[in-house]
Amino acid sequence: MSQQLHSPPIAYRTVGVLGGMGALATVDFLNKLVLATPAACDQEHIPLLVRFCPEVPDRADALLGCGPSPVSALVAAAVAIEQDGAQCLVIPCNTAHAWYDDIVKSITIPILHIVDAALIAARRDDSFETVGLLATTGTICSGIYQQRGGRDVCWITSSDDEQEKWVMPGIRAVKANRLDEAARLLQMAANALVHRGAKIIIMGCTEIPMAMNNCTVDVPLVDSTGALAQACVAWASAKAVSEEASVV
Amino acid sequence: MSQQLHSPPIAYRTVGVLGGMGALATVDFLNKLVLATPAACDQEHIPLLVRFCPEVPDRADALLGCGPSPVSALVAAAVAIEQDGAQCLVIPCNTAHAWYDDIVKSITIPILHIVDAALIAARRDDSFETVGLLATTGTICSGIYQQRGGRDVCWITSSDDEQEKWVMPGIRAVKANRLDEAARLLQMAANALVHRGAKIIIMGCTEIPMAMNNCTVDVPLVDSTGALAQACVAWASAKAVSEEASVV
To answer: Across residues A76-100, what is the average pLDDT?
Structure first.
């Protein structure tokens, strides 16, 4: 048998999106996902189940001991998205991945890890050597990039002072839709990382790429949101290939 | 009792979005919804349950007798979104509203009608008089704008020839992510409506505003996507007001 019966035009798998962290960052992720999908009409896009969950407490605050844990809200949303019919889960928020282990053990579908996606994208670049990490203080302290990056990676992060005066205010400005202010702050933080030796910078917070869209920095910038979108398209497409193979 | 217990910071109601018609138009809708929400942090945004449904057959083709009916797929998705927990439904696709009656009777939550939202926005403009309708041939033939607009509205629509050479190719170009080509085609269609007397034009297809973002037309353009986003924010906020009133 060389063809499938009753199949849609393209047999993409259904992707679940645990979103709203922040809301604009989820929209940016969806935009990059749709634009990365090789579709000529509505019917050739990937089926998505998306939840914007404002009930999830602030992740960065929780990691610094300044707010309630988001874990129960993250797990509840992930379980609901699996029950809705998603076949994998993505979370377009780097900091939320500090609770990856708790979320992944509460569901049976896989999670495409944003840090792995960003690291794969970064390693493709010839400048991958000394890596600057632009991220929330919570993400940096949680060590999720450092742990998944492997021992060969030399990391440079912003100083406590830079986090406090540039990075975190820049991220909060994006969440409040003040993109110009955010760009100015984050550009200064990126320049400081380059000054200290970063040859490539991972924008390891999904708010940051929106603000730095038009910024000029002397080293390549890796977009964790865009990398996750690319990983989604590849994962959703893989089903078509494997199903075709299985019915031959 | 003057305050609620265990309430989130802002008691927005949950909005369900039946999306993917097309995919980029749904992203545009979500972007406008998020930007229209008066939020200073993630927790102040509206909870959303969004489905991108590529399984829905082409609406415009169906209305012209050139393809299968989308009604069963639309109803199935609407029912699923209600079951997920949405308290109202929006569909950022004008043409799909030709099946509004079938969808609304299959669920118990209200649908915020995109045509009503667009007409409210258009009537706010002093130029609301002779109204040009830029939409799919299916939307025009279905009469959804003409029926909901009332007897006082004088409508001008594109000719069959204009629909065939400018409007429908323009809409299909957006669905295939070719925005510059779409802008050129749709601008010609809009100019023809103005030439025939339109004093205001409703962009009555959610693909059109994305392409016409930077177009210059001699009359005001009403964005049905943006109007639906505004209606969503107002509807989601209304709960906070009514709940506060009910617990006094």
So the answer is: 97
Interchain contact, A22 vs B42, CB within 8 Å: yes
Q: Which residues, in sequence order, are CB contacts of A201 under 8 Å at separation 6+?
A: A131, A132, A133, A134, A190, A193, A194, A217, A219, A220, A221, A222
Residue B124: CB atoms within 10 A of its CB come to: 10
pLDDT at B74: 98
User: In 3D, which of B128, B130, B111, B196 has the Cα closest to residue B162?
Assistant: B196
pLDDT at B239 over 80: no
B19 forms beta bridges with B52
B53 and B59 Cβ atoms separated by less than 8 Å? no
Distance of CA A138 to the CA centre of its chain: 15
Instruction: Tell me the three state secondary structure of residue B121.
Output: helix
Nearest to A29 by CA among A155, A104, A118: A118
Q: How far apart are CA B134 and CA B54, in angstroms?
A: 24
- Shortest distance, CA A162 to any CA of chain B (angstroms): 21
Tell me which chain B residues have a C-beta less than 8 angstroms from the C-beta of A39. Answer: 23, 175-176
* pLDDT 10s digits, A221-232: 999 999 999 999
Q: How many CA atoms within 13 Å lie on the side-chain side of B133?
A: 25
Q: Which two tokens stand for residue A110?
A: 């896989």
Cβ neighbours for A88, distance < 8 A, ≥ 6 positions apart: A13, A15, A16, A109, A110, A111, A112, A235, A236
Q: B218 by DSSP, 3-state: which?
A: coil
More confident residue, B141 or B177: B141
Cβ-Cβ pairs closer than 8 A, A with B, add up to 125
ipTM passes above 0.90: yes
Cα B112 from Cα B106, distance rounded (Å):
15
- Side-chain-facing half-sphere of B77: CA atoms under 13 Å: 27
Q: Which two tokens stand for residue B118?
A: 């667009």
